[in-house]
């Protein structure tokens, strides 16, 4: 089964200046994935495997994602 894996390295949030940001960012990501799990609509990204968390990372799997919004926008701008 094809899927896309998203991995967030918690240390990237440590670069933010406030000390509790790492945990705040991690909590927001965790809650957002939980919300996506509840939605069932063809226009909303489907979660295939819920959040897996370790001390260093947070990850989850979704239906296949073939491009990012940045890639699509760059592609459309290059066509102009």
Distance between the termini: 37 Å
CATH topology tier name: Phosphorylase Kinase, domain 1
Q: Mind summarizing the main beta sheet?
A: 3 strands, antiparallel
Please identify the structural class as seen in this structure. alpha+beta
Mean pLDDT: 87
InterPro entries: CIK-Related_Protein (IPR051177)
Protein name: Protein kinase domain-containing protein
Organism: Anopheles epiroticus
3D architecture notes:
This is Protein kinase domain-containing protein. InterPro entries: CIK-Related_Protein (IPR051177). This protein has 80 residues and is α+β, with helices and mostly antiparallel strands. It has helices at 21-38, 69-78, and strands at 4-9, 47-53, 57-62. It has one domain: 2-Layer Sandwich (Phosphorylase Kinase, domain 1), CATH 3.30.200. It has 2 helices and 3 strands. The chain has a 3-stranded antiparallel β-sheet, covered by helices on one side. The longest helix is centred in the middle third of the chain and has 18 residues, at 21-38. The model has no long low-confidence stretch (mean pLDDT 87).
What features would you highlight for this structure?
Phosphorylase Kinase, domain 1, CIK-Related_Protein, Protein kinase domain-containing protein, alpha+beta, 80 residues, single chain
In terms of topology, how is this protein built?
Elements: E1 4-9, H1 21-38, E2 47-53, E3 57-62, H2 69-78
What's this entry about, in short?
Helix content is 35%, strand content 24%. With 80 residues, the chain is α+β, with helices and mostly antiparallel strands.
